[in-house]
Specification:
The complex is a heterotrimer of chains A (242), B (473) and C (338). Chain A is of the alpha/beta class and 242 residues long. Chain A has ten helices and ten strands. Chain A has a domain of 125 residues: P-loop containing nucleotide triphosphate hydrolases (Rossmann fold), CATH 3.40.50. The longest helix of chain A has 18 residues. Chain C is 70% helix and 2% strand. In chain C, β1 and β2 form a beta hairpin. Chain C contains twelve helices and two strands. The chains are: A alpha/beta (242), B mainly alpha (473), C mainly alpha (338).
Amino acid sequence: MVDDVFDEVGLKVENLHASYGAVEVLRGLNFEVASKGVSVILGANGAGKTTTLRAICNMCTTSGSVVLGDEDITRTGTAEIVRKGVAHVPQGRGTFPELSTMDNLMIGAYTRKDNEIRDDIDRWFEIFPRLSERRDQLAGSLSGGEQQMLAVARALMCRPRLLLLDEPSLGLAPLIIEDLFERFTTLNKETGLTMLIVEQNANLALEMADYGYVIESGEISLSGSADQLKNDPAVQEAYLGA
Amino acid sequence: MSTPLVVVAKDSAEHKRWKYVQWMYLAGFLILAPLVLEPFEIGKMNRALVLSVAILAVNLVVGFNGMLALGHSAFMGIGAFVTASMVQDENWDYWQVLPVVLIVGFIMGVIIGLPALRVKGLYLALVTIAQAAVFPTLVNIDELGIAARTGGPNGKGVSEEVIAPGFLEWLPGVEGARGGSAYRYWIIVLMLGITLLVITNYLRSRPGRAVLAIRDNEAGAAVYGVNLPVAKTMNFAISASLGSLAGLMWCLDKGFVAGQDFTFLLAIDLIIGLVLGGVGTIQGSLVGGLFVVWVNDLTKRISVPLGLYTLNGDGPLAKAIFGLILILFTFFAPGGIVSLARLVQSKLIKVVPLTPSGEPIQPLDSMDPGMESTRANTAMKMAVIGPVLLAVGWLLMAVNSLIVGVLAFGLRMTILMAPVAMLVGSNELKAHAAGNRPDSVKGPASMARLLGGLGFLFVIAYAVQRFALNYDF
Amino acid sequence: MAGATSDPRLESNLLATFFLQTTMDLVLLLQRVFDALFNSAIYSSLALALVIIFRSTGLLNFAQGEMATFTAYIAFVLLAGPQPRLTGGGLAGLVPGVPFTVPLAIVGAVLCGMAVGAATERVLIRPLGGASDLALVNITIGLLLATNSLMAQWWGTGPRIFPAIFPSGAGQHFTILGARLRYSTIGVWIVLLSVLILLILLLRHTRVGLAFRAVSISPSNAELVGVRVGPTLMYGWAMASGFGALAACLSANSVLLEPNMMLRVLVYAFAAATLGGLDSPKGALVGGLIIGLSQTLIPAYVPFIGFELSVLPALLAMVLILLIRPAGLYGTKRIERV
């Protein structure tokens, strides 16, 4: 059991189990994400990282409890969870290839009814000028990096409380990854957005995170502040290549 | 019945014996059918087997290549009309027409497949449905002598009768009242058998495996060097060729072809047969044809009075029942009858695979320790239930009602469990003699062997009686 | 030559005959076009219903035509009573003070169609989850067979005269350059175009339209931006079926109401939708026009093609267009990334 290590808890997961058919992927996960903090989940292929994020959004069969702020969302439907302020950038980016860049951002704001949507889109075009250049192009024709920018911008269009990122570095060039992670850091500093990142690129992830968990075979095997993990010999050997 | 009745090592002598048992059932069914069935029922059986070939053709594209092509009624029609025209107008023999039909079907398949296979999924379904919808009108074109060849709206009859030559009159059922249809039955069974053999081997061949690979992952197959357009078109053309063969068989069986026989509704029948039988399985096509014809036939005989109003199966009701069956199967048995049969089979027999060195991956005796006695008991129950239900079924035959009749037929068929019960019983006795079973097994096992043997004798006696009636000994 | 010019009267006569002939031919052509416009509108409307479902759910409803015919029967029942073959009383007196006029009955049919469509999605499609295309084709073909047969069972196979919604009597037409353009053709086109415009506005410029498009591209991604996928699909089905009902009611007068009424229309509508591009409302309209016009004009001017074969050129055109543009004239090309 994890004690309440944080002053304010953004997301609290207890005894989370998840399975695809007969295969149990998560076997009783316990972890917390600090409100306004950046947490990272590290793990090898097949450890259950992606499933963890999917389970939080109730996209697979689960048991256990997931609490967002002080609200239990274990049994809430995926669309409703999004409406409660959880944005998820899934593996494979989750953009709509046959919609234009603009429409992708518009649909990102689907849950909002205020009239600042246009302003937000303009803001994102300012942050990612490349997207602005390609605003009427179909999303499927963007490059991998541009699509990842679009995916993040699309997720943030719903003005979430919690952002779930599934391996944002996957398939991107090192320079672009660094740029992307810098932007995540700025975003967190400026807006206080709570983030939970799943990554294989442990170096970068621990650089920007406050707190980290290591997941092995569907269970949390290690947890601690980012600095602690960086200096942990086991983590160094397995994930940092030291 | 969670314990399988029989546990065998793969490819062991005993495994082979059980395979022979399965083949014996099939052979028995095929040989007895023309002896037991009435002449008009043999006609239905013929129609069913012809549809099986057509369904196999659809399966080749839809089930094995994952392309939603639904218009095979048109290929059947082409085969049927080519046959009718060549036999009637040019006085060819059916066997002479056969290669022509296969080639014409293949060419039509290439012509239609080349453009159609450029589109995928539901688009392809639409194009092929258009193909099925337009075919019956094509038959009526006056130009190019088409209508003269096809008989136009009146259809075309073949006056030459298919009669068994003297040296084939010994075939079961061929001599006597059911002669004509029984002889055609044997021709159709032969053609179906050859088709099944050819298609099974095709699917195991290099191009066949490419076709399966395309179904499972098109991009993947392309990356492994499969030439997608060629593989798809070839497969479609083979399937069209097979569909035309079914058309030839249709003409051979009915002696009459008309455009109205090859409408969109026939295409739907083929899809229903495919889904009912089992998409992507060879056996499924076989079962599917039988089901389409017999279910259709049974519903036609339904007549339920509802107050002032009579629900009459003769009219459109059959379609409603087919629609319902299609929906129910899609929901509850998407694998079709074959998947249900495999479920039953897995409860009856467990085949233990072998390690590379040829040993079973686990000792056969350790499959389910402590459960041995249930096996003998189940066998005994099967041996007892068979004759009892047979008797009940026989008594129920006196009731003149369609539903009871179908039920009675099903009950009588339970006697076919007897040989299985006998074999399991003797198996268990052998295991007991070898010291692998407790003594408590002995009683039920010998009982199962005895009763099962009697039941088996009864089945054989019945078959012999049928043969005697046929051959006048 | 000299002989020919020597008789100017004959020449002018010939000329006059020629002009008269040409004018008559032109009038005839115009007349044929006007006649074809009615069928085109019907094909376009049903194609539009197919497109709506494809656009919002990514699948095709093979039972679209049968569901539409069913609702036309509902309208008929609202006007003439539950078992029209037995009585002629109708439901007119059932709800006091509400006389079921033709437009009211059609509104009832459209509402009923929407309910049927929504129910179909909820009961037959959604429980299947993300099943294969074949499974969905099976379900809708099963529905086609069942609906068709039950209609024949209940209402009989005989054709019935459905009241006209637009004036379609003998003299009720405009005369344009000698050709008659019926009021009913104009009426049907007004309805079709206004629905089309509404639909395009809805899909292009509203939140709901964007949600429809997102769901048809990827339901799971749509859910991740907070779109309630189930209800969205249900609205799509309801909308399409309601529109199909309208199409059936509009055409029932001219093609006579019978259980197979829409089966033939459906094949043409499929061709129209494929021609235009399955996900393009505009394409449905253009496709319907092409099919309808070629069906009337080609047999008239190409001697060896009779009316029976009239659909052949249209279908050939469909195949050709698919060869060049597999997504249809106006369809969006699917983008595939592995």
